[in-house]
Amino acid sequence: MQGRLIYLMGPSGSGKDSLLQAARAPLEARGCRFARRVITRSAESVGEDALGVTPAEFERLEGEGAFALSWRANGLAYGIPREIDDWLSAGQDVLINGSRGHLEATRQRYPQLFAVLLQVDEAVLRQRLLARGRETPEQIEQRLARSRELQVGSALSPLPLAGEGTGERASQADTVILDNSGPLQQTVTRLLQLLDETRQCA
């Protein structure tokens, strides 16, 4: 495959949907394609142009081989349509909204993937989850606990962004960490700098 899979991760409430919306136009101008996720709860699709299906429909699609990637998290099922393989084979870069828990399995299928982890301060994350009103306080605490477990259990390698650090070339297997605790536009700018530097979407 000639294209590069850009794998955006982050806990629920970290602002992935907002980042995807804000960065979509400039990334598409760089030749990136955006994969539309299939999710088993329509409320999760708000803000990210996802397709909400029933659990039975998801199982049928999965059984028919409709997904290049699929996983379960927080009681939901997520699928990435297999059309991304056609885009990658055609030399196009593809950005997907992925899962931290499924990262290593995805790396096995797509060794050239470039992983980006969106993180926010836990207090900010809790506030965002409460504000959106999708989960009960107990479910929110479960999400926060899962986020802490994945953060501690991951072998992450933060990389310098434009104008920061030593400027060492990024390894294809590294995970870049982006802090989204501040203004969204700042995160968008850093993401675009990162992708320009690594020539993911040049």
Description:
It is a single chain. The chain has 202 residues and is an alpha/beta fold. It has helices at 16-29, 55-63, 83-89, 103-109, 122-132, 137-153, 184-197, and strands at residues 5-9, 32-34, 38-39, 51-52, 67-73, 76-81, 93-97, 114-119, 175-179. β5 (67-73) and β6 (76-81) form a beta hairpin. The two termini are 17 Å apart.
Secondary structure layout:
Elements: E1 5-9, H1 16-29, E2 32-34, E3 38-39, E4 51-52, H2 55-63, E5 67-73, E6 76-81, H3 83-89, E7 93-97, H4 103-109, E8 114-119, H5 122-132, H6 137-153, E9 175-179, H7 184-197
Pfam families: AAA_18
Pathway: Metabolic intermediate biosynthesis; 5-phospho-alpha-D-ribose 1-diphosphate biosynthesis; 5-phospho-alpha-D-ribose 1-diphosphate from D-ribose 5-phosphate (route II): step 3/3
EC number: 2.7.4.23
Shape, please?
A: globular
Average per-residue pLDDT, rounded, comes to: 80
Oligomer: single chain
- How many angstroms does the end-to-end distance come to? 17 Å
Percent of residues in beta strands: 15-25%
Query: How big is the Rg?
Result: 16 Å
Catalytic activity: alpha-D-ribose 1,5-bisphosphate + ATP = 5-phospho-alpha-D-ribose 1-diphosphate + ADP
EC number: 2.7.4.23
Family: Belongs to the ribose 1,5-bisphosphokinase family.
Pathway: Metabolic intermediate biosynthesis; 5-phospho-alpha-D-ribose 1-diphosphate biosynthesis; 5-phospho-alpha-D-ribose 1-diphosphate from D-ribose 5-phosphate (route II): step 3/3
